[in-house]
């Protein structure tokens, strides 16, 4: 049961997610900042290191699992994956991220649409599928293959990312942020946020405020 949260913080558009090929994944793993981490960040650093070890061990056997670990690590680091250039691996068609998945232009179109319609509730899979002329079932399958998440989960992740940025403005109440980001209400926002981030919005915001002061 989440406790009601304290005052708010602010946001801009969430950064687009770009799926990386294994070569790029390895470059990103090696590019994780090595500067000293504060005690507050130590648990995050430990979790990221564990995830990156999992990425390396999974790359040769289970590409999808490696990508899932990579996205979790990037989320913890608040890494802007849009700044990383996708590098096709040998034998991978340059028009696709993953064989049998979506082409880059399709992913870009869908993500751009999601990011500019986060206040719309719900964002249906069928609405996203029609953007690229796919049936909902085929879109769901290829989207998950390319991005490692179902369309519904991905949309929720983008809503939470937008909320985290808006929460940096302490003048914005959580109930307002919940509506702007497309959640049914503050209770729904709190439930989803806790499930994806691991703490309720109020606790997360207070932690961010302490980090900024420190």
What would you say this structure looks like, in words?
The structure is a single chain. The protein starts with 21 loop residues before the first helix and ends with a helix. The longest helix is centred in the N-terminal third of the chain and has 17 residues, at 42-58. It has 10 helices and no strands. The chain is mostly helical. The protein is 56% helix and 0% strand. It has helices at 22-30, 42-58, 63-77, 104-115, 125-131, 136-147, 151-166, 174-180, 186-197, 201-213.
Q: What is the topology?
A:
Elements: H1 22-30, H2 42-58, H3 63-77, H4 104-115, H5 125-131, H6 136-147, H7 151-166, H8 174-180, H9 186-197, H10 201-213
- Measured between the Cα atoms of the first and last residue, the distance is 29 Å
Structure classification: mainly alpha
Total helices: the number is: 10
Average pLDDT: 74
Say how many strands there are. 0
Order of helices and strands: HHHHHHHHHH
Radius of gyration: 18 Å
Largest β-sheet summary: none
Strand content: under 5%
Globular, elongated, flat, extended or rod-shaped: what is the shape?
flat
Which residues sit in consecutive blocks of at least 5 with pLDDT less than 50?
6-40, 80-97
Helix content: 55-70%
